[in-house]
Amino acid sequence: MEEKADKNWMNNHFASAEMVKMDLQERLNKSRRLAAEEEEVALEKTGEEGVLLMKALLGLGDLVTNVNIPNQGQIGNLPVGAAVETNAWFGRNQVCPVFAGNLPDDILHLVTRHVAN
Known about the structure:
The protein is an alpha+beta fold.
């Protein structure tokens, strides 16, 4: 299977100013056609996890993923309220941390300094 060449100038560090201007003009023209309802919006799956997060919060499924949220006891030996990266369950109108237990002492000593700052 032959690979398609990436024509997006943003992925080309050597794109010419003319190429950038032409792309901008094409995007402006497309925006005008969409606003005038001369062209339909194409809905495509993007694979973005943000879509899955929103669907879960709307009650259209559950999702467990890692996020940065305040510690609610999911890491027992860090202060409540400290920002921690942890797994969380997303469901209708809620995000609930997945409890992970205590950090090992060797790691705790490294992390505590950053939590305090």
